[in-house]
Amino acid sequence: MMQHKTYFMTTFLLLTASIVSAAEWGDLTVQFVYDGTPPAPVKATVNKDVAYCGKFNVLDESVVVNPKNGGVANVIAHIYVGRGDSVPAVHPDYEKTAANEVKLDNKQCRFEPHVTLLRTSQTLLVGNSDEVGHNTNITALSNTASNVLVPAGGELKQKFPLAERFPMQVACNIHPWMQALVVVQEHPYMAASDADGKLTIKNLPAGKLTFQFRHERPGYLTEVTLDGKKTSWRRGRVELTIKPGQNDLGVVKLAPSVFEEK
Fold first, then answer.
1. How far, in Å, CA of 220 to CA of 223, rounded?
2. From CA 196, how far away is CA 57, in angstroms rounded?
3. Alpha-carbon distance values, 97 to 76, 90, 119, 187, 202 (Å)
4. Which of these, 75, 93, 94, 134, could form a disulfide with 106 (CB 3.0-4.6 Å)?
């Protein structure tokens, strides 16, 4: 009986591996652009540890727009998994990083990176490259929130085993201008736009998928311009058909009013 069970399990695993390897995969690329004159960078109010933090050009990073091409940084994109929905098939290449440590550093009196992407199977490594202490206050809904002191040159590790429906907000209560976001998903299909407003999610399973887009200032990106047409994305969601190979959504323009504080 044990031999039959072993044979059945081996056959099942081989069949599953064969199905995954035979699946088709595609990449999604999109660029987010500020539809107007890029706003000038705003300096942060550095009022603590001024002798050290004042040496750096610390900026307000809630809205970062490239003055050369209008690219909007830190737009967050991920596959949307509704309540009760199954997680999409994961490309084998992602297994290499499934248990990795992902670093969020306190560096030059700011968080680096501003947006951290974390899978539930990974570990968040919070470091402090500065010469002053920082506390890392992480607000969570599904996971346990934390507020820990990270001394100069120190580090700590934290696990967040549950997916978060909203990015976790990160703050330093010692240095109140320091803000960041941590996106926690069960799957690896997420990205944040770079300094040119571009992001790519690689090795997506081909077929219809729902994506959700958001930004720190407005939250969900609901009003966008795509292919010259104003478009509404309810709760920042849009269903796209991913074909094998490259899929370019093109340029998505965001009106200045999207970023106005409410």
1. 9
2. 20
3. 20, 12, 9, 12, 14
4. 134
Closest of 27, 10, 26 to residue 18, by C-alpha: 10
CATH class of 24-259: mainly beta
Q: Which of 142, 136, 222 is nearest to 186 (CA)?
A: 142
To the question of pTM greater than 0.85 for the whole model, the response is yes
- Cβ atoms of 194 and 117 within 8 Å: the answer is no
Report d(CA 194, CA 31) in Å as an integer.
9
What CA–CA distances, in Å, run from 252 to 73, 216, 230, 244? Answer: 13, 17, 10, 22
Comparing C-alpha atoms, which of 213, 211, 207, 210 is closest to residue 242?
Answer: 207
